[in-house]
Design a protein that fits this description.
Largest sheet: 2 strands, antiparallel
Distance between the termini: 92 Å
Radius of gyration: 29 Å
Order of helices and strands: HHHEEHHHHHHH
Number of helices: 10
Number of strands: 2
Strand order of the largest sheet: 1-2
């Protein structure tokens, strides 16, 4: 009798464990109401990554597109992702509804590390950062011929150094790197450096 009770307790514990695991699985991979259709078999923590490993990912995405249409959803890990395909769908989302789709996924670790003010921001913070960046770039001459003039000056200097070599071997890699650096320096600091001083 004691053995039977022990077996029943073990079976009850196993059944309860299986039920709890099944519920955890169901809640971790079930698609929320209103989410686009997509592949059904998702593994907790991995999502549909196992299915993507069986085939080349672009081929797998193309197969899902044929099966579910231009808009479908799947789990990448534990994150539900909506996939958009086709020119019309992408234009509708990213051009006609740009404000709605401009947000980026929030990763708690990144938010903590950057205090929600890093380059991965979106929404209002991103718009403020973009406005300040554009104001600074406009002040530096973006949209005007100032940048083009500085680049042309640097090209003339580049050609002059090549012509002065008179057919002798010349390290164009170093010269090109110095020329690009000079473009940046002249824009940021208002000064360019001679190629000979850049070599030092």
């Amino acid at each position: 009798m004691a053995i039977l009770k022990e077996i029943l307790d073990i079976n009850t514990g196993l059944a309860l464990g299986v039920a709890v695991l099944s519920l955890l699985w169901w809640f971790s991979v079930r698609r929320p109401a209103g989410a686009p259709p997509g592949p059904w078999l998702a593994v907790p923590l991995l999502g549909h990554l196992l299915l993507m490993m069986k085939k080349d990912p672009p081929q797998q995405f193309a197969a899902w597109r044929r099966q579910y249409g231009d808009v479908f959803s799947l789990y990448l890990g534990s994150q539900l992702v909506v996939v958009l395909n086709g020119y019309k769908v992408l234009k509708e989302a990213l051009v006609n509804n740009a404000d709605t789709f401009s947000d980026r996924p929030h990763l708690p670790l990144m938010d903590f590390a950057t205090k929600s003010k890093g380059s991965d921001t979106s929404g209002v913070v991103w718009k403020d950062q973009r406005k300040v960046s554009l104001d600074i770039l406009r002040e530096l001459g973006m949209g005007k011929n100032v940048l083009a003039v500085k680049v042309q000056e640097e090209i003339k200097e580049y050609i002059r150094v090549i012509s002065e070599s008179q057919g002798q071997p010349l390290d164009l890699r170093h010269l090109t790197q110095a020329s690009v650096s000079n473009n940046i320096c002249s824009i940021l600091f208002g000064k360019r450096f001679d190629f000979s001083s850049a070599a030092k």
